[in-house]
Amino acid sequence: MKYWIGVASKDHALRGVKEGIAQVCHGKKAPLARMKSGDWLIYYSSVKTFTSLETPGQRNKKENQCQSFVSIGRIVDDVVYQYEMTPGFMPYRRRVEYLPSNQIRDVQLLEVKDKLEFIQRNLSNWGLILRRGLFEISLHDFQLIRDRMTKSNNTNIATAMVAESNRSSISPFVNNESSNNDNERMVYDLTQDDIACSASSRCNMNVIKKQKKLINRK
């Protein structure tokens, strides 16, 4: 079992929770194929909405910033599949069982930054790690974030969610159904330059304009 962090704007991460899917790195297959059934995935969001990336300067506005871990779930199988979101754009996806949003809370990066191993081992360029779109983390980092995300719940979700990995009975996860409504189809992956907290980050406007053009074809 491995543990991963995916990067997406919060609105796209939460739409992924609703539909029970994960999509990263502009819909590429290779990153998703690294994850196996039973692995755990946490989404980090630097901004609240994907649209805030379309105009230079918008993503750095305080009201657009998120910089939080916003969802957590388990990879349910080993299938990497394609889905046609718009004509000519067929990103790859994975099926994920997420904890319901009402059973977790957002955890700001600043709350755990000083204790996360992937940051402490890369103090000079940890922002670049987030720009990968998907990367593996240690059990220590997973447990730290998981416990912070679930500690406000009255039930012991933090323990139950791991035990549930080996059970087939009642699940604490969201019962997800993918939407067939074209108006609800979104680009779930965050551009690799969507890191407001990294001083070295720049907005990749060419990629964003291309994705915006695809979305507007609906």
What would a concise description of this structure say?
The chain is of the alpha+beta class and 218 residues long. The protein contains eight helices and eight strands; from the N terminus they run E-H-E-H-E-E-E-E-E-H-H-H-E-H-H-H.
Q: Could you explain how this protein is built, in words?
A:
It contains eight helices and eight strands. With 218 residues, the chain is an alpha+beta fold. The protein has a single domain (3-215), classed as ph1033 like domains (ph1033 like fold, Roll). Strands 1, 2, 3, 4, 5, 6, 7 and 8 form an eight-stranded mixed β-sheet that branches. The model is unreliable at 167-172 and 175-215 (pLDDT under 50).
